[in-house]
Amino acid sequence: MHCPACNTEETKVVDSRVVERGTAVRRRRECEKCGHRFSTYEQVELPRLVVVKKDGRREPYQRVKIESGIRKALEKRPVPERRVREMLAEIERELQARGEEEVGSRVIGEMVMRALQELDEVAYIRFASVYKAFRDADTFQEELKHLRKTSRPRRFRRSR
User: Fold this and answer.
1) Cβ-based neighbours of 98, under 8 Å, separated by 6 or more
2) Whole-angstrom Cα distance, residue 41 to residue 8?
3) Cα 62 from Cα 143, distance rounded (Å)
4) Which helix (H) or strand (E) holds 100?
5) Are 28 and 41 contacting, i.e. CB atoms less than 8 angstroms apart?
6) What whole-number distance in Å separates Cα of residue 96 and Cα of residue 47?
7) Model pTM?
């Protein structure tokens, strides 16, 4: 592993921990040349999963696209980083468990919506407004009504 400070390959692992509910390993490394410490993460790579878009296009699965949408929805929300990582790991576990080579973008979108609804209602509405392409305020109202009917007590609450 190259040191990000001096770019040498002379680094060693000083600590390893299982993270994200057992789906990744965090390694703490130290450069033997300059002493810089940094972390790396090792994750299981999904088998070549192809995402089928609404218009029929197919593209390789990219975790960063899902993560980007989730982070935009959660922007300025009081959700710990750990919960975001756990949510992403859970979505990927569900995708792996399906055992399919192709998955529709709708399936992934529904997984994200379900996870956000449990995590943070505001983030859920933000994501839903883009994902479902809300047309007007009435559409927002309908989604809020639906949210109120189906909402369960959340695992994460902001402390006051």
Assistant:
1) none
2) 19
3) 28
4) none
5) no
6) 8
7) 0.64
Question: For residues 147 and 139, what is the distance between their CA atoms, to the nearest angstrom?
Answer: 12
Residue 105 has what DSSP assignment?
Answer: H
Q: Which two tokens stand for residue 79?
A: 């959700």
Predicted confidence (pLDDT) per residue in 112-129, tens digit: 999 998 899 889 888 888
pLDDT tens-digit map of 21-51: 777 899 999 999 999 999 998 877 767 899 9
Q: Which residue has the tokens 């609404």?
A: 54
- How far apart are alpha carbons 103 and 121 in whole angstroms? 26
In the numeric block, the tokens 């979505």 are attached to: 91
The CA distance from 15 to 29, in Å, is: 7
